[in-house]
Write a structure and sequence with these properties.
Distance between the termini: 8 Å
Helix content: 40-55%
CATH class: Alpha Beta
Order of helices and strands: EHEHEHHEH
Largest sheet: 4 strands, parallel
Shape: globular
Number of helices: 5
CATH architecture: 3-Layer(aba) Sandwich
Radius of gyration: 14 Å
Strand content: 15-25%
Amino acid sequence: MTDKAHVLAMGLDPEVVDFSRVVIPGLTKEILAAAIEGERVKLEALGYRVRMLLIDTGKTAEATVRQTLEQQRYDCIMIGAGVRVAPDQFLLFEKLINIIHRHAAPSTRICFNTRPDDSVEAVQRWV
């Protein structure tokens, strides 16, 4: 079914990440951006229809996610580790989960990556 599965992969835009506070040693804006693009390419090669949604740390993130979910139905939503594991992003993560709960289809699966280069595995666990 992956040839028709729609995946929304959301995470922090590398431009807004404070790399002095990340938990992955050596991670830089360039490495993160390359990993995000690499995962998109891999998912599309596997037949998924992918939308990468890079969000800020809260100024427009909620509205952006809500609008995205109102425009398209997704089979799976992957939330990046930068939103999920960074202590200073906890409130944003909580808000995004509630937006997804309200605006995504009841059958939408939610998954989480653990680092920038394992999003494919996260999606494949559920779709």
